[in-house]
Amino acid sequence: MNQAVVLLSGGLDSTTTLAIAREQGFAAYCLSIDYGQRHRVELQCAQRIAEKLGAVEHRILRLDLRAIGGSALTDTIDVPKDRSESAISHGIPVTYVPARNTILLAVALGYAEVVGAFDLFIGANVLDYSGYPDCRPEFLECFERLANLATKAGVEGLGKFRVHAPLLKRTKAEIIREGVRLGVDYSLTLSCYDPDDQWRACGRCDSCLLRKKGFLEAGVPDPTIYRE
């Protein structure tokens, strides 16, 4: 069985990505990053999800990006609430974490070298996200080239690194339908950028609004517990 490193945040997209990797026959080594995100309760969700979906192991690595800030998720900046669909779909929002996916994939690449994996899975999506530059296919293609140039395993020809983003061009509704087909329990996931200490989603941030819209369009009951 081929091995893969799966970046697992505990959210809807990364959970579906893990389920896809497992269906494709990969032994999944899950990696979650505690980067100082205000919604770090998602990491506890990730632990449960990794166990539920049969990951070989799940590691949580602490890399506190609050030291540089610059995002509503890592700094004293309010998380936007109640934005219109038009507003969400234009521009790069303050919830963008500077270079986050570059950093996460770099750590995943190092982990992959250690466990002997050449496949990296990430739940990046360009359709339902608000212009995050590190979710674009151009970025993922460039990182894949970097992975094969910058590693001992790549230089020695032990294998070819591949970056998989199976949800890249799927709508949230399509992602949810795929997860349902794969038996994903979405009640275990948390997408909210500003949950309370009881794990309840705010229901008003961009991520909650996109999640609600996705379940509605998919025709699937939303199991999320919202506080508002």
Q: Would you kindly provide a written description of the structure presented here, covering whatever features stand out?
A:
The chain is an alpha/beta fold. It has a single domain (3-218), classed as HUPs (Rossmann fold, 3-Layer(aba) Sandwich), CATH 3.40.50. It has helices at 12-23, 42-52, 85-88, 100-115, 137-149, 152-155, 172-181, 206-218; strands at residues 3-7, 27-34, 57-62, 119-121, 162-164. The protein has a five-stranded parallel sheet with strand order 3-2-1-4-5, sandwiched between helices.
Secondary structure layout plus pairing:
Blueprint: E1 3-7, H1 12-23, E2 27-34, H2 42-52, E3 57-62, H3 85-88, H4 100-115, E4 119-121, H5 137-149, H6 152-155, E5 162-164, H7 172-181, H8 206-218
Parallel strand pairs: 1-2, 1-4, 2-3, 4-5
Helix pairs in contact: 1-7, 7-8
Average pLDDT, all residues: 94
- Helix content range of the residues, please? 25-40%
Strand content: 5-15%
CATH topology: Rossmann fold
Strand order of the largest sheet: 3-2-1-4-5
In the CATH hierarchy, what is the architecture at level 2? 3-Layer(aba) Sandwich
State the low-pLDDT regions, or none: none
CATH homologous superfamily classification? HUPs
Count every beta strand, where a strand is a DSSP E run of 2 or more residues: 5
Could you say which overall geometry the principal axes of the C-alpha atoms support? Answer: globular
| CATH class category | Alpha Beta
Count of individual domains:
1
End-to-end gap: 45 Å
Largest sheet: 5 strands, parallel
Order of helices and strands: EHEHEHHEHHEHH
Rg from Cα: 17 Å
Number of helices: 8
Based on helices, strands and strand pairing, what is the structural class?
alpha/beta
